[in-house]
Amino acid sequence: MAVLLPDSDTSRREVIRHNGRLAELFIHTVTDIQQALENNRGNRRGALLFVYDQGMPLLDPYGDLKRARAQARASLAAGPIPLTPDERERGRCLLTCFMDDLIDAPSTNRYEQLSLADHTLREAAHLLTAHHGAWTGIGKWLPRRLLSADPIRGKVLLDGHQRVAEHADTAPLTVAAERVLDLIGGPLREGYTQR
After folding, report:
1. How far, in Å, CA of 188 to CA of 178, rounded?
2. With contact defined as beta carbons under 8 Å apart, do 172 and 107 qualify?
3. pTM for this structure?
4. What is the pLDDT confidence band of residue 170, given thresholds at 50, 70 and 90?
5. Contact (CB, 8 A) for 149 and 46
6. Do 161 and 91 sit in the same domain of this protein?
7. What's the half-sphere exposure (Cβ side, CA atoms, 13 Å) at 175?
8. Distance (Å, whole) CA 180 – CA 177
């Protein structure tokens, strides 16, 4: 739930329980909402943008909500801020490292396998959504945004992740991750330097 407050209050994120249900509140002052929406575009997840775009307005006595919704919709239409070349190269290197470690993880060490599968999926999703200029996500939104951005490659990644979880089989996920890397310049190992 998004709440706009006068500038005399404080912006914050708050979780409350109402009638036995948890509710997450995104509370911003009228002045802070502009920067919060722009930051949300920069983190490429857009959660707050989607709340303002798709939420049901309850009260807007001064038109502040209408202005915030217009800004959110404009930001969603513009799409997430693209990765910089350095961010893309760092992502390539990270995904390559996670993928290589996943290949080398012994099937008897399920803790390592599962941790590496999670990191591989997240980084591959981040790079694949960025490649398509699409929004990414975390938690339940990661598969939703991934499938929306690229239904075929996204499903192959998710199926590969599930295969690791259910059968300790890392091959489908590593192949899917390598296909994502091939879209953006291939695996990155030797020669990469992060400053």
Report:
1. 11
2. no
3. 0.89
4. very high
5. no
6. yes
7. 10
8. 5
Pairing of strands 21-29, 2-5: parallel
Please list the residues that pair with 15 across neighbouring strands. 24
Beta-carbon contacts of residue 73 (< 8 Å; ≥ 6 apart): 52, 53
Asked if residue 189 belongs to a domain, the reply is no
Identify the residue whose tokens are 């200029």: 133
Q: Do the beta carbons of residue 11 and residue 40 sit within 8 Å? A: no
Residue 101 has pLDDT above 90, yes or no: yes
Domain count across the chain:
2
Whether residue 122 sits in one domain with residue 50? no
Instruction: List the domain range (segments joined by +) for residue 32.
Output: 2-78
Domain stops at, among 26, 46, 78: 78
Determine, yes or no, domain membership for 163. yes
Contact 160, 172 (CB under 8 A): yes
